[in-house]
């Protein structure tokens, strides 16, 4: 049996070495060949196949490097998207997971010389949110695909609600128009009856007034009545009187009213009534719209409150205060810690801020912590459970706070009265 046969120790050792990662300096990306030592890499560089690949590289080196860089970037971002989509993770952790595949594109074939340079590139281009800490570079993937999907879904939902609201408003306006027309018809019927009675009274009064005049006056009166019947207007006879004392025209205005003045004033009054009715209808319609929108918003808030109000509120990443008097002897009473893990929804693993000891405490023996104004909080219960918000103000009399939601579905929404128990400080 030869020394490099299938089951010899040497052959087994060679296969084990081939499975694991080798040194990066002895890897040829153009040929995708990994060498085990310097001598093997030297022999590979002298081979004919490698020389052909280098000739291809020499024709367009920039294009080849750019191709390897794009492939490295796509694969790296794909790994973050799958494994660390919503978490803050160290860059070295992701890189070690990436290079576990022996057929990956090596970084020495890209335009980035080091991992730090590559992480800075991700931050500049907006692929990830990067942070330089004493423990190294950390990054958080920016999920733009899900943001677009959420925005599109919210837009579709908003369009549907707007269409439904428009239909409700149209129905409401149609009902109001019908009611207004009925009331106007009743008012017009009453006005016509009053006008007919007034005309009959005026005619009888005029006959009585001019009954004692001369024959000429009676003829003129009959002629004027016939003319009035033909034209449909009321004429007023003016008699000449003795000239009185001179009056300054700028001190007093003429008190003589003509028939067309009365008609104009009546038309203006009707136009004013119509304008007032229209304004009243518009105001009522606007009030009805606002009331309908307010009712819808209240119903939606109540529905969210019912669905998201739970009897447990612990979640990882928040700062809590230990209120268990049984732990007072050990010095943990009224001390603050960070929730690292939640067990069975009601028990939390708390890492104390001062001693770094880890405790398991029930949520009944914990209390939420309110940060300073402007600090970040997490809404741990209620309609907006799970959202991060910025603390704007605190009302000590009502034991509630005013916060503004940051990120997520309700980005920018201001909540004016959130109870202390429903918000908690986020650990930095």
From TrEMBL:
GO MF annotations, alphabetized: zinc ion binding
Cross-referenced SMART domains: Kin17_mid
Residue segments, region Disordered: 183-229, 260-283
Coiled coil: 283-310
Biased composition regions of type Acidic residues, renumbered to the chain: 190-221
Amino acid composition bias (Basic and acidic residues), ranges on this chain: 265-283
SUPFAM superfamilies, sorted: beta-beta-alpha zinc fingers
Gene3D superfamilies reported for this sequence: 2.30.30.140, 2.30.30.30, DNA/RNA-binding protein Kin17, conserved domain (1.10.10.2030)
Biological process according to GO: cellular response to stress
An annotated GO cellular component: nucleus
Pfam family for this entry, one: C2H2-zf_KIN17
Keywords of this entry: Coiled coil, Metal-binding, Nucleus, Zinc, Zinc-finger
Subcellular localization(s) per the UniProt record: Nucleus
Superkingdom assignment: Eukaryota
Family annotation (InterPro entries): C2H2-Znf_KIN17, DNA/RNA-bd_Kin17_WH-like_dom, KIN17-like, KIN17_WH-like_sf, KN17_SH3, KOW_KIN17, Rib_uL2_dom2, Znf_C2H2_sf
Domain DNA/RNA-binding protein Kin17 WH-like: residue ranges: 52-178
Recorded family membership: Belongs to the KIN17 family.
Protein's name according to its UniProt entry: KIN17-like protein
Lineage: Eukaryota, Viridiplantae, Streptophyta, Embryophyta, Tracheophyta
């Amino acid at each position: 049996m030869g020394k490099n046969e299938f089951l010899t120790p040497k052959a087994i050792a060679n296969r084990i070495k081939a499975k694991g990662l080798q040194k990066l300096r002895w890897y040829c990306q153009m040929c995708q060949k990994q060498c085990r030592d310097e001598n093997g890499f030297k022999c590979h560089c002298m081979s004919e196949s490698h020389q052909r690949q280098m000739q291809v590289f020499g024709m367009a080196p920039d294009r080849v490097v750019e191709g390897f860089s794009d492939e490295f970037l796509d694969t790296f971002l794909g790994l973050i998207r799958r494994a660390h989509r919503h978490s803050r993770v160290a860059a070295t952790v992701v890189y070690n997971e990436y290079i576990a595949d022996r057929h990956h594109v090596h970084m020495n074939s890209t335009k980035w010389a080091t991992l730090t340079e590559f992480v800075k590139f991700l931050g500049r281009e907006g692929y990830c949110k990067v942070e330089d800490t004493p423990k190294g570079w950390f990054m958080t993937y920016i999920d733009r695909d899900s943001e677009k999907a959420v925005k599109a879904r919210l837009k579709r939902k908003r369009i549907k609600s707007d269409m439904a609201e428009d239909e409700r408003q149209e129905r409401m306006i149609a009902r109001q128009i019908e009611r207004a027309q009925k009331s106007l018809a009743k008012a017009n019927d009453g006005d016509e009856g009053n006008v007919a009675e007034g005309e009959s009274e005026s005619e009888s009064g005029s006959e009585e007034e001019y009954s004692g005049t001369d024959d000429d006056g009676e003829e003129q009166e009959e002629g004027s009545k016939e003319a009035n019947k033909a034209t449909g207007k009321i004429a007023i006879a003016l008699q000449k009187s003795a000239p009185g004392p001179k009056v300054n025209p700028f001190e007093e205005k003429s008190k003589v009213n003509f028939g067309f003045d009365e008609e104009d004033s009546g038309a203006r009054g009707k136009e004013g009534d119509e304008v007032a009715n229209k304004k009243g209808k518009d105001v009522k319609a606007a009030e009805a719209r606002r009331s309908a929108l307010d009712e819808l918003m209240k119903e939606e808030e109540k529905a969210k409150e019912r669905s998201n109000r739970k009897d447990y509120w612990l979640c990882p990443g928040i700062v809590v205060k230990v209120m268990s008097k049984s732990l007072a002897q050990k010095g943990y009473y009224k001390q603050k810690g960070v929730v690292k893990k939640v067990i069975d929804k009601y028990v939390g693993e708390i890492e104390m801020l001062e001693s770094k000891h880890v405790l398991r405490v029930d949520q009944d023996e914990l209390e939420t912590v309110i940060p300073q104004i402007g600090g970040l909080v997490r809404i741990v219960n209620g309609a907006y459970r799970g959202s991060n918000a910025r603390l704007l103000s605190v009302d000590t009399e009502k034991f509630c706070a005013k916060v503004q939601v940051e990120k997520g579905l309700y980005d920018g929404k201001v909540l004016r009265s959130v109870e202390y128990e429903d918000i908690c400080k986020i650990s930095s």
